[in-house]
Design goal:
By secondary structure, this protein is an alpha/beta fold. The chain contains 5 helices and 11 strands, in the order E-E-E-E-H-E-E-E-H-E-E-H-E-H-E-H. Strands 1, 2, 3, 4, 5, 6, 7, 8, 9, 10 and 11 form an 11-stranded mixed beta sheet that branches. Helix 1 packs across helix 4. The protein binds hypoxanthine (HPA). Hypoxanthine binds next to strand 5, strand 10 and strand 11. The site of hypoxanthine (HPA) has 14 residues, from strand 5, strand 10 and strand 11.
Length: 239
């Protein structure tokens, strides 16, 4: 049975908590994915799981080979990709810890593509069907999520200046370093894509906060259970 859904996880989750059936190395025309791919079992369904920062969290955001990650999942025949990631909040009312299923993204700084040798232009956006399924999954577990909001992707690896965050907060609600790249590439290969974001800090200057990356990482690990539970439940019942 082929996996229907690909899951890419970030700083919080190094394992999904599902039974691992096999782990395979993949090679793509774009190089190797960030980690071995785990084929996991969730209820009667299967999913393919990649850790975007590598098994030991050694690949920084600006060095992630998103094309290899997405292409490897595509080669396994997935129809959906769900991106789990850590974000900072750009709004005081999105108070960490929280979970956001964003409705759109802004990513003008890094635009990844598979279309280097042909002229083709997708119109980017998340899959409403997948977003709704993730919401259903959260509701059925009695978990509160923010359903909506705009994700802004920065290049990283540094966090942002206060002035940058002041600017971004006028146009977006959460800030992270990956979703735009993964979403665009998935869509280019005809794969439905949605993101589920763990809000682990206020971005620089929001509510007077000065974020620290080690602190964010600790919080991301502590907060991962909720996003993982929503995704696992999605895999079992809603995909
Ligand atoms: N900025 C960018 N990326 C992030 C942040 C942040 O504050 N928190 C988690 N990922």
């Amino acid at each position: 049975m082929r996996p229907k859904t690909g899951i890419i996880s970030g700083s919080g989750a190094y394992e999904l908590g599902a039974n691992v059936l096999e782990e395979c190395e993949a090679e793509t025309p774009y190089g190797r994915p960030s980690s071995k791919i785990q084929i996991v079992e969730a209820g009667k369904n299967r999913a393919a799981f990649i850790r975007r920062h590598g098994p030991e969290h050694t690949i920084p955001p600006h060095r992630i080979n998103h094309r290899a990650n997405i292409y490897a999942l595509h080669s396994l025949g997935v129809e959906n990709i769900i991106s789990i990631g850590s974000v900072g909040s750009l709004k005081e009312w999105i108070k960490p810890p929280a979970v956001v299923i964003p409705e759109d993204y802004i990513s003008p700084f890094r635009v990844d593509t598979f279309f280097d040798d042909r002229v083709e232009h997708i119109t980017p956006g998340f899959s409403e069907e997948l977003r709704n399924s993730l919401k259903e999954s959260a509701l059925s577990l009695d978990m509160e999520v923010h359903f909506g909001g705009v994700y802004l992707q920065t290049l990283g690896p540094r966090l942002e200046t206060k002035a940058e965050i002041r600017m971004y907060s006028r146009f977006a609600d959460i800030v992270g370093m990956t979703v735009g790249s993964e979403g665009t590439l998935s869509q280019e290969l005809g794969i439905k894509f949605a993101a589920i974001c763990s809000v682990d800090n206020y971005a620089h200057g929001i509510g007077g906060v000065i974020p620290d990356f080690q602190e964010i990482l600790k919080r991301a690990k502590a907060n991962q259970e909720k996003t993982k539970a929503i995704v696992l439940n999605f895999l079992e019942k809603y995909q």
